[in-house]
Amino acid sequence: MAKTKMIYFFGDGKAEGNAKMKDLLGGKGANLAEMTSIGVPVPPGFTISTEVCSAFYENKRSYPAGFASELKEHLGSLEKLMGKKLGDANDPLLVSVRSGAAISMPGMMDTILNLGLNDQATVGLGEKTGNPRFAWDAYRRFIQMFSNVAMGMKGEVFEAILEKIKADKKVELDTELDADDLQKVVTEYKKAYKKHMKSDFPQDPVEQLQKAIDAVFGSWMNDRAIHYRKLNNITGLLGTAVNVQSMVFGNFGDDSGTGVCFSRDPSTGKKVFYGEFLMNAQGEDVVAGIRTPEKLSSLKKRNAAVYDELEAIKDKLENHYHDMQDIEFTIQQGKLFLLQTRNGKRTGPAAVKIAVDMVAEKMITEEEAIGRVSPDQLDQLFHPGIDPKMKKSLSPLAKGLNASPGAATGQIVFSAEDAEAWAKDGKKVLLVRKETSPEDIGGMVAAQGVLTSTGGMTSHAAVVARGMGKPCVAGCKSVVVSGKAMSVDGKKFKEGAYLSIDGSTGEVFEGELELVSPKITKDLATFLGWADKVRLSAKREGIAGVGFQVRTNADQPADAKVARKFGAEGIGLCRTEHMFFDEGKLEIFQEMIISETAEARADALKKLLPLQKKDFKGIFTAMEGLPVTIRLLDPPLHEFVPKTAAEVKELAAKLGIKPAQLKAKAEALKELNPMLGHRGCRLGITYPEIYDMQVEAIMTAACEVQKSGKKVHPEIMIPLIGTVKELQMLRANAEAVIEKVLSQKKMKVDYKIGTMIEIPRAALTADKVAASADFFSFGTNDLTQMTFGYSRDDIGSFIGDYLDQGVLPRDPFQSLDTEGVGQLVSMGVEKGRSVKGDLKMGICGEHGGDPDSIDFCYRTGLNYVSCSPYRVPIARLAAAQAVARSKK
Amino acid sequence: MAKTKMIYFFGDGKAEGNAKMKDLLGGKGANLAEMTSIGVPVPPGFTISTEVCSAFYENKRSYPAGFASELKEHLGSLEKLMGKKLGDANDPLLVSVRSGAAISMPGMMDTILNLGLNDQATVGLGEKTGNPRFAWDAYRRFIQMFSNVAMGMKGEVFEAILEKIKADKKVELDTELDADDLQKVVTEYKKAYKKHMKSDFPQDPVEQLQKAIDAVFGSWMNDRAIHYRKLNNITGLLGTAVNVQSMVFGNFGDDSGTGVCFSRDPSTGKKVFYGEFLMNAQGEDVVAGIRTPEKLSSLKKRNAAVYDELEAIKDKLENHYHDMQDIEFTIQQGKLFLLQTRNGKRTGPAAVKIAVDMVAEKMITEEEAIGRVSPDQLDQLFHPGIDPKMKKSLSPLAKGLNASPGAATGQIVFSAEDAEAWAKDGKKVLLVRKETSPEDIGGMVAAQGVLTSTGGMTSHAAVVARGMGKPCVAGCKSVVVSGKAMSVDGKKFKEGAYLSIDGSTGEVFEGELELVSPKITKDLATFLGWADKVRLSAKREGIAGVGFQVRTNADQPADAKVARKFGAEGIGLCRTEHMFFDEGKLEIFQEMIISETAEARADALKKLLPLQKKDFKGIFTAMEGLPVTIRLLDPPLHEFVPKTAAEVKELAAKLGIKPAQLKAKAEALKELNPMLGHRGCRLGITYPEIYDMQVEAIMTAACEVQKSGKKVHPEIMIPLIGTVKELQMLRANAEAVIEKVLSQKKMKVDYKIGTMIEIPRAALTADKVAASADFFSFGTNDLTQMTFGYSRDDIGSFIGDYLDQGVLPRDPFQSLDTEGVGQLVSMGVEKGRSVKGDLKMGICGEHGGDPDSIDFCYRTGLNYVSCSPYRVPIARLAAAQAVARSKK
């Protein structure tokens, strides 16, 4: 049997891997191999595969047989190519050891640099380079990093030693320490190591390397990494790869430096060569955000040749990968090295612009472009901004970097824990930090937005916030954070004060500002147009020639108009009960509920009829020409009855009855499990007069709007059907009312009568139910509640444990459980269509706006999804992607 | 195309129908034809088929084409055979028009007698028979019956006329009126008819016949008949047939009479010729219970020849039908006619005795015998009786007929409405009536038992009560009912007073007596032995060679012992939470619940451990050698927390905490939909220490009982699984505890770990779940709740409407909904077995005791059902019948 290859070499223009081997070599390793192959200057090295990581965890953190010898062999090749040996006393080879999974997890896993140094090699390095200060600085950095990352010592121990030696010498900056000082630092570091680890700092470079590899693999399962994967729904990976690469130094002097660049602006998408660098620095200095870096343009002044070479490489890489690249580079003594390239993360607006531009540049096709913007990124384009009218009259309190677009407003807090605690109490907060670190992720999730006082566009805060689609202003230097307060130019703001930030401009404002939603840009319209082209090309049963549609859930004409502007092709769910909560209507509805006789109920309903009719006329007018699915009354009646004594007293007075009588009625209506109680079509069966009134209001409204010249397509939807008998009876009742209205009005209206499929039994017997239905709408909220036996209102007490312990991969109310609930949906579709081949089917649960769920809905054969108005464009894209995916 | 035959003739030893044509001719019609064919003297006539009834309703109460001519033709044949003509002025033919469906519905539908009389024919009949009084009496009866039944007039109108004429003549009995008086009655009746109907009483006998047929068909859909069919789950019938039969008269004089007899005693099953008759009376007089009839034995004295003929016919019929016969006969002027025979209704004890005796007589096989006792009848044998020790010292207040066996105790009420209203308020009532009528059925259902002061063993009260398995004492003459009170020998009992009745002896006692359950008789043991033989012969997957088993749901050793005595083959469901409600345990459990830390919780659980262990030792000991399925904690924790302020205060004091603290904890635990909340295995995931304690208690108890030499087979059942991950995790936890206990005890115990399938998702993913389960137990209570979306606690507000309007054929919590819920059960079985062919499966919902559901469970492939201890014998029979049925 062939031995599985565990390690892949790259260097000298040749590589054993390539860009397609991301699953095996991680994104970084695969691209290092690819770049090497296409002639980009990359320091040689090798990649230990993710399969080794997987085996490491399967075998209780030990390595597969033969690993040690394969490692030795590749290290030998690297030493031969470089003409240097690890730990050599005269001219030592130094390597970096870095993580790199198939999906980028920035800052989540460990890295060790300058590995291979020991006491002797440091002296040799100093002599060889003629720069002992550099050698001692590299050694002290290595000890600190190795001790922290590989051995678990706290970084503060080493910070304290460094600070003390600087204080002793009365200097402030590390750079003010000379070689002797740094040698002293090393001596103290080693002492500290021995004190904590009860052994000497390892001098054997092979031992160092093995421990570093252990640490990187170990970091795959650290809490931060696990949390990050859960947050980003990253599943199914084997593990991380480990990249061992010969070191190049950006901190070799003023002719050295390091930087990060993007082939286009990751914030706006503009086609500009965009990046930052620091001279005489290592890469970590740029990412950590401790020093504020220079713009790439100033590199041209410092070293035009290197700049030109970098620019040419950037173009080469973008053309090679057909996507915007995020590139890490180091200049060592005037020579350029590329350390990493990957498809760059970008904001939503940038993703759209880059996709549209690249189609114009003929770099990608329209259909490829659709896949370049994730629905979550598109969502960012619909994030609110600060009301421009208000903004005109304001001057910002401070200005930082526009690190992640969108505006946010809230009360300021100064730690991730506080952000989470305040948010849990229902408060909207802004997280203000000097800089963020991976420990702050939970707080960033909880906050409306993030504001940092240091760090650049590629700092932790900026990168992570963009990934989350969370507004962020970074590097806002005038903000001084101190404990649980901050000040700007002497003005103090305590915890809980209101601030607003605009992550698209970098501005910070005092107070709680009004936010507004953005408009659809030309690029966005173009992009969504392509998405619609794909989406509407889908072949669907049920509605001929109109593809896979997107409708909206809207109860008010205003919402309907917004949704229509965003491209909704109809209303998938208009909840009539929300209308009853309006001023003026609630009281009449309550009067109806507490009626003791059918006559009294009829009187109250007669008063409601014209009001309901008005509601429906508004909706029909707003949705002219498009179908409108109206769900008849669904919630149990007790939801409309007052709960507190004061409310009872007030209503009783209005209705002219005794509070005790009203209280008794409310008591009688109470249910132990209202979710499974007297609601939906069960109300329609026991109080047919309520549904009769609603149907009369719908049809009268439809006639009147149609008479005014507007086309109407009402779809009457009966909720909570569990048996076909319910639907048969209620359909017959509705048809009688409709017949009455239409014959009175002497009109014809194109109407449909259908049902929700939201009770498991309805899905199980969908072949029976279909016989009486013109359409099905899957109510996946209730279907999820009943299929799992989870009350959405009560799930809070255990869902946290369930997600943390991996019982559930995701909250099934956010993303449809395709395995269980999805099985019922599929069954409903199949059984329904077995009876009526062209039965129109859609989904109106909250899942209708979730991209993964939309994909499932398409695969299952639904005709449309329906979601909230602001999710409509996102659903249009997700639907297009689902269609495109299914073609493959 | 052949015309469908609508009417079937019988008479003169030949018949167009036979006993197998019950669906078409109804039970009565089919048997009249059969009796005619085998030479039993039956008055000739014809039967209009149930297909005509069905067509009648399909065509808006009109008849199929050709019906009138077919009717005319058959009437002609009858007239020819009888040598008389309907309405003939000299010698008129008189006919009865009776209903008769395929399934007997005694007293529910309409009958008209003496049809064919008019003014002229009555005179002719008087002359021909030489008995004008008889003729005028027949006519006045006919007018009254026809007007009431066919024309909808109130009977009271006629009663009033009759009473007035009797008063005028100063007589009390109808028999004291002579021909002239009756002619006067007829004149007044006809006046009343004209006044109410605005037309003369119809003189055309063909018109009379048609109206009578209309009325009988119409009575198929009267409220009583609909109610009766619903109560008895009678579905799928076409309608009723109509039997038109030449009249014979039991009221022709003292040499005439009418009666009802059974080929064996329907109350005890003894092989005695049993019956009642009244001389000079029509059949209605016997059934109505107005006069108390004579025992059959006295017929022998009155007319030995007729008695002998009747006895011979009875034997002939029983031998012909191989079942106990219920026979109606009339003697007209010394000549015997049979009017009806059918398989007789019988009590449970009679059903068992007759079945066992007939096997001994080689009349039927053992397997046929099993089908002769319905599970509901068997249930009657397990009805309580009055504690014999107590009874010894009591003398009865009164004694009536032992009309329906079993004892009952309760507060007396005097109308069906009151019985229903009081029962609704949770009171146990006895319905006391002079006599019952079909209008009283609702009250009889609601009552514990029925006591009547008039009427015989075949009176309405007796027949209906036996059918319901409801204790009944009938014809208790010393009871005088007056308004809402009764008196016995001058002693008065008002509404609400407590009485007890023993329907097996006919005794009535004062006060509320203790009831006890009966023992298993030898016949019953024999019968159940046959049932078990069939049941255990069933081939089942899962448990080799043990057939289709019956287990019990029991939480206490006492219950377990009762169930074992009744034949339970294991415990299918032992609910551990019931144990926590015991004195002493509840407080510790509450302490555990309100614990703020895992340590405090552990302390409380440590205290509970020995108590739980003791519970389990008791159960294991009682069920020695049999499997015991123990369900880990299922209900949400708030069920154990006090609700009222007083309870909170008391518990807080005991636990040494502040009431506010306890109240806050209780508030925090509250749920909007507890049924879908934090319960079952969700508790096991969030508080693993609770399940760990329970598993430790189970296994320690198992070890200790096994050490004492008794075999134990614990089956640990994890409730409310929705995902296999839950089961995997909880199984791993349980196995760790088990390993610990067994290694400490150095023992091996035969244990299993399985799960409930009660969440729809568990059934849908049963192939995944099966991988981690040793057994499945279908929890069809919860499965029904979630599949329908019905809260069992809240269903009351609409289930009445749902059953009344036919949305649901039966309450799905009483009889498993095979179409919907059953689909999930089947899916669970199939998917589970697709992974583990021998996966043991059972049902532990309440459905496990319902015969129809047991049949479904067998067909679906389950290994066992589990039900309450007292249902075990019924389930054994139902299981045997299911097995026998599936062989056909």
Automatic annotation (TrEMBL), chains A, B:
Gene3D superfamilies from the UniProt entry: 1.20.80.30, ATP-grasp fold, A domain (3.30.1490.20), ATP-grasp fold, B domain (3.30.470.20), Phosphoenolpyruvate-binding domains (3.20.20.60), Phosphohistidine domain (3.50.30.10), Pyruvate Phosphate Dikinase, domain 2 (1.10.189.10)
Q: Does the keyword Kinase apply?
A: yes
The active site consists of H460 (tele-phosphohistidine intermediate), C844 (proton donor)
Residue positions annotated to bind Mg(2+) are E758, D782
Q: What start-end ranges are recorded for coiled-coil regions in this protein?
A: 296-327
Q: Where is the PEP-utilising enzyme mobile domain?
A: 428-506
* Keyword Ribosomal protein annotated: no
Keywords of the record, alphabetical order, are:
ATP-binding, Coiled coil, Kinase, Magnesium, Metal-binding, Nucleotide-binding, Pyruvate, Transferase
Q: Which reaction does it catalyse?
A: pyruvate + phosphate + ATP = phosphoenolpyruvate + AMP + diphosphate + H(+)
Q: What is its EC number?
A: 2.7.9.1
Q: Where is the PEP-utilising enzyme C-terminal domain?
A: 547-882
Q: Per its UniProt entry, what is the enzyme's top EC class, as one word?
A: transferase
Name of a matching Pfam family: PEP-utilizers
Which residues are in the Pyruvate phosphate dikinase AMP/ATP-binding domain?
Answer: 23-60, 67-302, 308-362
- One MF annotation (Gene Ontology) recorded for this entry: pyruvate, phosphate dikinase activity
Q: Where along the chain is substrate bound?
A: R575, R631, E758, G779, T780, N781, D782
Required cofactor(s): Mg(2+)
This molecule's function is given as: Catalyzes the reversible phosphorylation of pyruvate and phosphate.
Protein's name in the database: Pyruvate, phosphate dikinase
The source organism is Sediminispirochaeta smaragdinae (strain DSM 11293 / JCM 15392 / SEBR 4228)
